[in-house]
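Convert to structure. Protein one:
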Amino acid sequence: MIRQPIVCVMGHVDHGKTSLLDAIRKTTVAKREAGAITQHIGASEVPTEVVRGVCAPELGEKACAGLKIPGLLFIDTPGHEAFTNLRRRGGSLADIAILVVDVMQGFQPQTLEALSILKEYKTPFIIAANKMDLINGWNAQATRSFMKSFNAQPDWVQARFEEKVYELIGRLGTLGFESERYDRVQDYRKAIAIVPVSAKTGEGIAELLMLLSGLSQKFLEEQLEIEVTGPAKGSVLEVKDEKGLGKTMDVIIYEGVIRKGDEIAFGTLQGAATTKVRGLLKPKPLDEMRDPREKFNYADEVSAASGVKIYAPGLDEALPGSPVFVVNDENRAAVAEEIGREISGVLVESTGPGLVVKADTLGSIEGLRHLLSAADIPVRRAGIGPVTKKDVMDAVGAKAQNRYYGALLAFSVEAMAEAREEAGKNRVAILESDVIYTLLENYQKWVEVERAVEKKEAYASMVLPAKIRIMPGCCFRAKSPVIVGIEVIQGRLRPGCKLMTSSGTEIGELKSMQKEKEQVTEGKQGDQFAIAIDTNMTFGRQLNEGDILFTFVPKDHYNLLKTKFREHMGEGELSLLDDIRRMAGDTFIV
């Protein structure tokens, strides 16, 4: 038995991974994804008959002779660095990979990340140099062959195209990889093949499929010829309702065989759970498991490597992203332990500082945690499912420790009504997105706004430098609280500060400010109003008409006004601030 190789599609955001599979499948899955970016690992099967049907007319019957593999199973991975762990899982499962690179943009951070993953797992790969139709002057041809299209281009367009290809070759060289355009490779064991393609026009798809099939069969023959008859191992992609079936699981089987009636173990929030398989369904060829256009085919058994939909009782609590195993008396205990270890390694439950994170799958949680960890943002709790009131209260606790953790990140999950109500009461932000990498960006923007709010609040509590004069004929109360009319000569005056003389003698605390029976929160130069001073002094003795008073600015306020809030201060205020410091003398303490 020769199984089909698992092909992992990797690359940077927007470089065309899903669009490339669309060109192969002739579907539009990419357009229906949130943000046009794949959010979960998907799977598509392309039978060898289809490979022949595409390649033979373009490359000739000889090119397709001797193909033995039953087809290609594509795993489509998300492209952003947030999904490192998902891609690691995909990379470790893959027999061969396609690294999609936008020929116009070249290598981006996630391209380099994908290379490191492939290198770590020693996974052979091909470079798909996508978007060749964007080369200036390129005239798309009605063919799925790169070489036919390339030969039809003018010499100057060919030259421009070659420049782009050699840029990729040079970049790969600096990274320690020997590479060349696929038709110039002398030894595929030593050099990475670069296949120019256009996901938009379909040019190059024939060479890409042929090279994948040929290399898989030639260099992975022993690996693919191993008969896989043991209990199946797989990974749960999604758990969803199917009309007439109830809860089902979309699963990638990467080892062994699963049969109708088998007992399987899978992950839940409580650990491993088991059930018996009632039915196995497979998408039709060229269809896509996550979003099939046609009804499924029923199967009595499914062998690796394959995508399959499983329906069985008791799948309501199954966690997308968790392992799934066929179990028997021999492996039952080991399987339960492995599933528990997998789940506990991803989900987080603590009372320490950090963000509360909710998502739809274990894989999404892994991606979010990786993304936040790379940005040095701790996670207080990570869970699966909708945002609840309990989640919000947990975020309130995190906010009490650090105001910048008063946000809750929700990826592809809803927030319940009572959760939103509680969040509004406690000023907890619920940041939601169906595109995972935007969550960090949204959080960082929220932090910027929160910092501005904090700065505004902090500035509002600052004692500002002010110089005031007690106006003649304006004493309304002679003893504490002394109430007199004043004019602000310089600076800004706020209630709650202490007042002093030019010699540094403390007068008392400014309790309130009033003008025309209305409370005043701040007075600026030229303003006149009545103030109440909590003081032991008496007007007419220690305090008199025409006295000049100053605000006493504490040292910590002085330092903040000179640094953090300097842009809010005018030159005159900064000069007055230094004068007040000198006046305070020994009372200017920490």
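Protein two, convert as well:
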Amino acid sequence: MRLERSSILVTMLWLAARPAAAQEASPSPSFVRVDFGIRGTVYGDNADRARYQRYRDLRNGPFADALRAGSTNEHWSFDVRADRVGYRDQRYTAAYNDFGKLKASFEWNQIPLFFSQDTATLYSSPSPGLFLLPDPLQAGLQNKTATLASAAGQASVFDLRLKRAVADARLTYSATPHLDFNVSFRNTQKKGAQPWAGTFGFSDAVELAAPVDTRTTDVGAAAEWTNDRGEVRVGYDSSFFRNDVTTLVWDNPLRITDSPTAGPVQGRMAIWPNSDLNSGSVSGLVKLPASSQATAYVSLGNWSQNDPLIPFTINTALPAIALDRPTTDAKARVTSTAFTFNTRAIDRVWINARFRSYDFDNRTPVFHIANTVSYDTSAVAFAEGGTSPYSFTHKTFDLDVSWTPIAHGAFRAGYTREVVDQTFRSVDTTTENTLRLSADATGVGWATVRAVYEHAKRVGSGLDEQTLDDIGEQVSLRQFDISDRTSNRFSGLVILTPLSSLSLNATAFVGREDRPGAVFGLRSNDNTGASVGFDLVPGSRVSAGASYEYEKYSALQASRQANPGAQFDDPTRDWTTDSADHAHTFTASADLLKLWPKTDVRFAYDMSRAESVYIYGLVPNTTLPAVSQLPPVRNTRNRLSADARYSLTRRVGAGLTYWYEKYSVQDYAFNPSTLDSIAQPSFLMLGYLYRPYTANTFWGRLTLNW
């Protein structure tokens, strides 16, 4: 039934895309291609089928894939396509081009996200966003006559999935040879559920399958005028986000009655609010004398969001705190500009200058707050007295100069100055200056060489440590995106072609980053990597290639384990995290085309192996207990694919495809051996874990062409 409905859809798309006057036009090259067959997957014991199918649908059964139909002549062309018909990852496209007059296209694409096939929960959900536990269970847990561990066996097992469906339509109408009108429409809908967390404190947290039912609609319209000297574009763009579930309410596993100290019977939180964006833009390009041209772009937009606000607490045992206003009334003005100028007025010299700015002017009124609620257990004074409408301005200037003294060599120097002004941050302004130097030698005999060096230094001004103290942070903390930073990076590329059929390549990079003013937070961040590979094409029927890459990323972070009071300023409670991530990647492929009569064979293999190590350190005079180091986090993925196609006739082909994939993972935080039940001492989880899998997928297919 799925294939029958899909065939009707493809036929309708084909007929809709075909021009009414097609039969009157001169004979045109047309084609139809259909690929169909049967597919099956065999899994190893206890395999994580959801992870293997994470963004695809590989269920067993018949399939119709790569359906293609189209036609073209000197006046028009059209093309319709359908992939993975009837499955969760299906895709349909249609395109029509009346040359020089009208271009239209449409795409409908589904992208699944399969989290887990064995998640489980004790919650029921009578309506979207509401999660309830059986009253007897809550009463037993509150009165300590029952335990979560004893109730875990009653949990319902379910598939945790999410699916995104994208409809994209575009139209270009050429009113004259110099004037085009463009219209675009894109609608992205997400439905399903995803893991979510709710908490009543560190000793009482839950995981929820939060419902996702959102829609983002993007609409654009523009007029473009061009001639030999330049072009002008005037456009309008908008984006509207709608969420049908904006509030989550869930039962507290440990309470059946509200308490002013022990907590509420339910928790509540707001999630993704509805929002709107409207913007207009003007851009232009002008060609100037001396091989020069300039471009300009200016955009003005408004962001707004005005959803109803939820109360400070759902706990009826606490006093109600009046809201300053009933809705968000959030709004911002966004102004963007971009200007470029490039020229080759001087022989062998190319100059490019670019300036960009982005101004986010937050016009949301201050929401005055005298008191707030902490963990739904107590009403406390709010020291700041209200919200802070964060705003920022981002300005970037780039200048690049390239000199080509010889036909196959070039030297380039570049400079970037980036200035960010912001409000309600510990640093008012950050300024980063970057210098780039590179040298290229291309087409010199059988070698291509490139080397790039980059030095950058970011400095902040207007430091106000009081803003950190106001939010309960250490005043020596330097936040990642605004802390002073000095970085150096070098990368190189070499390509050798000793034979016309053989190419060898190698790359390497080294990066070092230091943050001198950071006592707490990220102090350093370094990276190193290298790769080697080759491509071999001894003839038109055979090609092969392989590559290996190694990457290492390391960082040092510092913190202090301290509660408010005397501990807060005690340096003997300082500790560090020294992290190192290593990754190895190997890929290889070979194509054997018509090496045997009427037969094409392709092979591909890739392997990736990664390891993350976290080493915790203490100061020499520490008053903290000794550290128990965590084991490394490791994961390895091997994938082999083989595809063979045989031409039975000029129009009919048969094929076999095989995929082998094996994934192994060792993660102390999400291993089934660590989290062996949905009921843990301090939280109730869904059972979404990191598990290995081994999978073998087979396709048998027929391809028809006419």
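Confidence is low (pLDDT under 50) at residues 1-28. The first strand starts at residue 30 and ends at 43.
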